[in-house]
Amino acid sequence: MKRFVSLGGPLQGTLTAWFIVLFGKGRAMLPGSTFFKKLHSYPVPHGKMITISAQVDELVPKKNNTITGAKSYVVTAWGHNRIHLGSRTTYDLIARLAAMR
Fold first, then answer.
1. Which of 25, 64, 66, 96 lies 20 to 30 angstroms, CA to CA, from 49?
2. CA dist., res. 15 & res. 11, Å (int)
3. pTM for the whole thing?
4. What does the alpha-carbon distance between residue 86 and residue 91 come to, in Å, rounded to a whole number?
5. Strands 71-78 and 49-56, how do they pair?
6. Residues 37, 43, 48, 50, CA torsion sign
C-alpha cells in the first residue's frame, strides 16, 4: 500500500510565509490562499495520507499540518528542524508506518 506522509508540512498554510510573501510561492503558502483552497477541494483517499506534527513547531503549528481525511500523529519533538533531523520518535513512527500493510 502506498501512502503520502506529510512531516511538518504546511497543509493549512503557515504565517511564516509572510517573510517571503513578495514571491509567488510565499503568497501560496499563506493560510487561506488559492493554492490551499484548491488543495482542500480534493478528497483524501481513505488510508492513503498521514500527517506527522511536532508537539511544538515554530514554523508550522500542528493545526496547520492537518487535512480532512488524513490520519494525524503528533510526536514529542520540539521544533520544526528537530522533527525532521533529530527525533528518534519521528524515525520510529515512520518505520512503524512503513511496516503496516
1. 25
2. 12
3. 0.86
4. 9
5. parallel
6. positive
Q: How far apart are CA 65 and CA 50, in angstroms?
A: 10
What are 41-54's pLDDT values in tens digits?
Answer: 999 998 899 999 99
**Amino acid type, 88:** R
The DSSP result for the chain, as a single string, is: ---EEEES--TT--GGGGGGTTSHHHHHTSTT-HHHHHHHHSPPPTTSEEEEEEEE-SSS-GGGS--TTSEEEEEEEESHHHHHHS-HHHHHHHHHHHH--
Which letter, b or e, does each residue of 57-85 get, where b requires 16 or more Cβ atoms within 10 Å of its Cβ? Answer: bebbbbebbbbeebbebbbebebbebbee
Which grid cell sits at 64?
Answer: 496547520
Close Cβ partners of 85 (under 8 Å, ≥ 6 residues apart)? none
Q: Can you list the residues of the chain whose pLDDT is less than 50?
A: none
Residue type at position 101 = R
